[in-house]
TrEMBL record:
It holds the Pfam family ABC_tran. GO terms for cellular component: plasma membrane. It comes from Rhodalgimonas zhirmunskyi. It comes from the Bacteria. This is ABC transporter ATP-binding protein.
Length: 255
């Protein structure tokens, strides 16, 4: 097993008297896709917010490699390779699909708008953007405005934007939520492909058991903010405590 890429240690956040994430210690590894599950209100999104920096913990740390991210703003964490997909908020609705991705490539490469004045550089950025278009099967929609894309394609564009940022840690919060069944396999394939690159770590919050089964190398279960279980999917799904607390004794999908 390679060294962990991301470690949370004793991560805790209180809102008033309520402990939303309680002493969660977990290490995530490159080449591994971990799905975080748990009942409504278990603390999954809050845990994600603590990792990506939307929230600062009351106690505990978030480290990536040798770097302590705990007190960094989300933008600084992004520069350190934490990439989180946010539904629609990263899209420029009135720019084309290609332009959206080109901006993400440009932002990652650290160059300002003035680089558009350099024709050679512009064409390199465009070429790179086309690579992500192809990877996400959006090439045919390159010239459509992001706002005009069907919902499923917008979700694919979000993945393309994230890929263009080249993070080491990919974070997805219910990536197929609200998506029609015909688009779902494409997005799942994209996420599954990310971990083929053994340098990438993928974290996913998910309710749908079909998605969990399709993607998870490892499942962690949060309950009342605490880490209830952590392990390979079969082991976790079959453990009695998880069945009692999360799945119900029948083991049926809670979603
Ligand atoms: N900013 C906040 N202020 C106060 N309480 C909060 C805040 N954010 C989250 N909480 C509370 O923390 C708990 C965990 O919420 P969180 O959204 O992380 O759960 P979740 O597991 O993602 O749930 P769901 O599956 O329903 O999205 C909940 O009780 C929630 O009400």
């Amino acid at each position: 097993m390679p060294d962990p890429s991301l470690v949370t240690e004793g991560l805790t956040i209180r809102f008033g008297g309520h402990v939303a994430v309680n002493n969660v210690s977990c290490a995530f590894h490159p080449g591994e896709l971990t799905v975080i599950v748990g009942p409504n209100g278990a603390g999954k999104t809050t845990y994600f917010n603590l990792i990506s920096g939307q929230l600062s913990p009351s106690e505990g740390t978030v480290r990536k490699g040798g770097t302590d991210l705990t007190r960094m703003a989300p933008s600084a964490r992004a520069r350190h390779g934490i990439g989180r997909a946010f539904q629609l908020t990263n899209l420029f609705p009135n720019l084309s699909v290609l332009e959206n991705i080109r901006l993400a490539v440009q932002a990652r490469s650290g160059h300002g708008w003035r680089m558009f004045s350099n024709v050679g550089r512009f064409s390199t950025l465009t070429q790179e953007a086309r690579h992500y278009l192809e990877a996400t099967k959006l090439s045919e929609k390159a010239d459509m405005l992001a706002a005009e894309l069907p919902h499923g394609d917008q979700r694919k564009l979000e993945v393309a934007l994230l890929m263009a940022m080249e993070p080491d840690i990919y974070m997805f919060d219910e990536p197929t939520a609200g998506m029609s069944l015909d688009h779902t396999p494409d997005v799942l394939d994209l996420i599954a492909a990310l971990k083929q690159d053994k340098t990438k770590t993928v974290l996913l919050v998910e309710h749908k058991m079909s998605v969990v089964r399709a993607l998870a190398d490892r499942i962690i279960v949060l309950h009342n903010g605490e880490l209830l279980a952590d392990g390979p999917p079969d082991e976790v799904m079959q453990s009695q405590i998880v069945r009692d607390v999360y799945l119900g004794s029948s083991g049926e999908d809670a979603a």
